[in-house]
Design brief:
Elements (H helix, E strand, L loop, with lengths): L1 E2 L3 H13 L6 E2 L2 H10 L4 E5 L7 H10 L5 E6 L4 H9 L4 E4 L4 H28 L3 E2 L2 E2 L3 H14 L5 E4 L6 H11 L7 E5 L5 H9 E2 L11 E2 L1 H4 L4 E5 L6 H13 L1 E3 L6 E3 L3 E6 L3 H6 L5 H7 L2 E4 L9 H17 L5 E2 L1 H9 L5 H15 L4 E2 L8 H22 L12 H9 L19 H15 L4 H8 L3 H13 L4
Helix pairs in contact: 2-3, 6-7, 13-15, 14-16, 16-18, 18-19, 19-20
Length: 490
């Protein structure tokens, strides 16, 4: 939109812009500009400050105050430093002094459009990164943000999604999220666990049966495929399916038709198939336990759910939600975790993932009460894990002591459970507050690099665990190591 009260100049600027393939709306007054902004904000506003009814600065202030997503370029023949500063203070993108050439105008407008579009992309990405909850998921780690984006992109499609991940990572939660995000959300979501149903009954569970098809079939029964018509069928632990049924499933996926067990009628359904496994599906194919043609039919959009140990501080967010839910359910007063418990949660490997964390919190809430969860309340194996953390804490404390130039006590000196444990063990040297020996002052990046590498070594190469002990995110370690390599400091 061009806001210019001199008709001859307005025509010249409009011709400049039209030759560069811009669509231009020209107005001559501030009131007309405000009306146009309210109705349909343009990408760029070329704004003359000297208008017949109001000062152009009032329009700029309006755009700034209403947070209208448009880039404002001030064009004026009455330039001064004060005016330029005020315009920039209210968010003007650029300040162009009359007279100016067509090239100057084109460069300014193109840059303004590009900046606005980049800002919109950044805002969208930042909004995604800020998501700490997504349908049934809790967590804001970078690993989970990637999962959320795949679900967003795949949900509207009819393509089959193959979900992989360790047991307890939330594969069914992922399938439900895809269904709830999809156009089929108002239709049924039917889940079948292929590993929990006897193989002789599995075909009937999926496709149904007619009366008398086998012993115990006393009436016709619809299977999961018919119940999911119009919606989503989720086949969990798909790699547990026996080979004969895999062949029938492949034909069903290809044609959308099936026969009930013992029946002769061909039924057709419209549904989307999602599947999941905690195994490596490609290895199952290589070892002959899973049909290769079925694998490629199902493995259209892969989604891998990261284990809890690779999700940075998501473990604390999930644990806190479980704590509040179970405390309300059991009538207990728990509301938080002691910092030492949080440290244990960060460092523990969680082989059972979210399901194991859920069971741990349930155990604590049922068997104890109080305002906060203490180390002494943790069940096995978390209590053993707490004990195993202490040697690592002492190693990290030594690193911190060596890297800190004597600027404060190490972890073993700070009190709390780690300091008490270190001081109470025979044969363990406890650091004191003795004045450090004079040492050479080194660059901060060297000290930081040594501390991080020592932490990784103390955790046997487990970067997420080292990050937890250093109380930083794993992404910070990865980013710093990449920067060191790029700068030749690796």
């Amino acid at each position: 939109m061009l806001v210019e009260d001199t008709p001859s100049l307005a025509r010249v600027y409009t011709e400049y812009l039209k030759k560069a393939a811009f669509t231009v709306t020209a107005v001559e007054t501030g009131a007309a500009a405000l009306d146009a902004l309210r109705e349909a904000p343009p990408e760029v506003v070329l704004l003359d400050l000297q208008l017949p009814d109001i000062n152009g600065m009032e329009i700029l202030k309006y755009v700034s105050g209403q947070q209208i997503p448009t880039a404002v370029v001030i064009i004026t023949a009455h330039a001064s430093v004060n005016v330029a500063v005020e315009a920039m203070r209210y968010g003007a993108y650029d300040f162009v002094v009359k007279p100016f050439t067509a090239d100057r105008l084109m460069v300014t407008v193109r840059n303004a459009v590009e900046r606005l579009r980049l800002a919109q992309i950044v805002d969208t990405y930042a909004e995604e990164l800020a998501r700490s909850r997504f349908h049934g998921f809790i967590g804001s780690s970078l690993a989970m943000q990637g999962v959320y984006r795949i679900i967003d992109s795949a949900a509207s499609s009819r393509a089959t999604v193959f979900i992989t991940g360790e047991s307890g990572t939330g594969k069914e939660v992922c399938a439900e999220a895809i269904h709830r995000q999809s156009p089929r959300r108002d239709n049924p979501f039917v889940a079948i666990n292929c590993g929990a149903i006897p193989k002789e009954l599995m075909e009937s569970e999926i496709f149904g049966h007619v009366k008398g098809a086998f012993t115990g079939a006393v009436a016709d029964r619809e299977g999961a495929a018919a119940r999911a018509n119009g919606g989503t069928l989720f086949l969990d632990e798909i790699c547990e399916m026996e080979p004969g049924l895999q062949t029938k499933l492949l034909r069903f996926i290809q044609t959308g038709t099936f026969q009930k067990v013992g029946g002769t009628k061909l039924d057709k359904v419209d549904l989307r198939i999602l599947c999941a496994t905690n195994r490596d599906p490609l290895r199952e194919v290589e070892e002959g336990r899973f049909r290769e043609d079925l694998y490629y039919r199902l493995h259209v959009i892969p989604v891998h759910l990261p284990p809890l140990r690779e999700r940075e501080d998501d473990v604390l967010s999930i644990a806190h939600q479980f704590l509040l839910d179970y405390a309300a359910e059991e009538g207990k007063s728990f509301s938080r975790f002691h910092p030492d418990v949080e440290q244990v949660f960060r460092a523990y490997s969680w082989p059972g993932n979210v399901r194991q964390l859920q069971n741990v919190i349930r155990n604590v809430v049922v068997l104890h009460d109080g305002d906060q969860v203490m180390l002494s309340m943790l069940p096995s194996p978390l209590n053993q894990s707490a004990q195993s953390l202490y040697p690592q804490q002492r190693a990290l404390a030594a690193v911190a002591h060596g890297a800190g130039h004597g600027g404060g006590p190490g972890l073993a000196e700070q009190g709390g459970v780690f300091g008490q444990h270190a001081a109470g063990q025979r044969g363990v040297a406890v650091m004191t507050h003795a004045a450090p020996e004079p040492r050479q002052v080194r660059p901060l990046w060297q000290v930081e690099k040594e501390a991080i590498e020592e932490a990784i070594a103390a955790c046997d190469g487990n970067i997420p665990r080292a990050a937890a002990l250093l109380e930083i995110s794993a992404s910070t370690i990865y980013r710093k190591r990449m920067a060191w390599e790029a700068e030749g400091r690796a």
